[in-house]
Amino acid sequence: MSTVLVLNSGSSSLKYQLLHPESGEVLASGLVERIGEGDGRVEHRTGDREVRRELAIPDHEAGLKVAFDLFAETGYDLVGAGLTAVGHRVVHGGEVFYRPTLVDDEVLATITELAELAPLHNPANRTGIESARRLLPEVPQVAVFDTAFFHGLPAAARTYALDTATAERYGIRRYGFHGTSHEYVSGQVALLLGREQAELNQIVFHLGNGASASAIRGGRAVDTSMGLTPLEGLVMGTRGGDIDPGVLTHLLRNGVAVDEVDRLLNRESGLKGLAGVNDFRELRKLVEAEDAGARLAYEVYVHRLRRYLGAYLVELGAVQAITFTAGVGEHDSGVRADALAGLERYGIAVDPERNIAKERGARVISPDGAEVTVLVVPTNEELAIARAAVAVVDG
Fold it and tell me: Residues 146, 163, 259, 368: which is the catalytic one?
């Protein structure tokens, strides 16, 4: 069977999995954290064996070398293992990349140029690719883009009501993100329900530190909450989502520097801006402790979910499935219940016992016979990236 190494490079972290794309079997996985911060941490798992290290990790290449050493220590020599490909998550593909792409120097240069549209992500994604190319020069490197699933959004959904010439000059349109997750999860919903994707209208909520919603008709995305950048849409860990553009011009006219506005929007807004924490588990603890800021943050978060849910219900006309995925979507039963509360007249309901069950796998949480099936489906972007990488290498 094919073996693929999947890398997801963040600004100070590196997640990885070694897996068989055909079966989905994960051979090994790990997380390198606090890269460049002097007190790095590595967690590596092979089967039932887990190894932890704490050491200085100056950059992503050093982190990848540590991971390679742990692979060898636990039974996998990556350099000599005959890898089929290395698959990389890349957040922004712009207008250029809308399918998985074999990486060469030109592709890497374009990913770098797109960094201004995803400043938290594309530079780190590029760094991971560069490191893997140096350490595994004979292995094909494949970039899989978060924006690809939404490339074909209908014109009305992807177009901003902005001067056309300006939009065309600067490539301004709604691109959407988390596409790999939305595509994978919507496909899993069809399998779970035993129906063809072409028969289903779906709404998917990908709720993690980054969060997005999508409307999917017959397997094709027709709308999504994120836009030109990952800033638009739902409330997130450090990003506030939808905001009046006049807020930004107001700040600029009052002397706030462009870089400070950028930092505010990307790193100091969302749950962190309202409650001081961006981890939803910490927010939940503060809510339970009756912290007023945390309660407001939670209410704003849920309000935004319901706004998009209502919009997509109208856009799709009829919906057969609503699905929650990613860290918050999979693990916080309260968010799911509150997001769908009071919607029984629309055929939407959550069974309380099913919703709070401790199951980890894909499952239905709506009552038997409900008109709209509500599900929790764990996302698996790594498997989707691995399968896409093999498809590219196989031509």
Answer: 146
Q: Give yes or no: 59 in active site.
A: no
CA dist., res. 316 & res. 372, Å (int): 13
CA angle 250, 256, 261 (to 5 degrees): 85
Residue 115 DSSP SS3: helix
53 within 8 A of 355, measured Cβ to Cβ: no
Tokens of 135: 């350490």
* pTM of the shown model: 0.91
Contacts of 367 (CB under 8 A, 6+ apart): 349, 351, 354
Give the pLDDT confidence of 91-118 residue by residue, as tens digits. 899 888 999 999 999 999 999 888 887 7
Contact 174, 158 (CB under 8 A): yes
Nearest CA among 126, 328, 293, 38 for reference residue 211: 328
Name the token pair of 255: 């002397």
Which two three-digit tokens encode residue 82? Answer: 């005959």
What's the pLDDT at 354?
97
What gap in Å lies between CA 340 and CA 350, rounded to an integer?
7
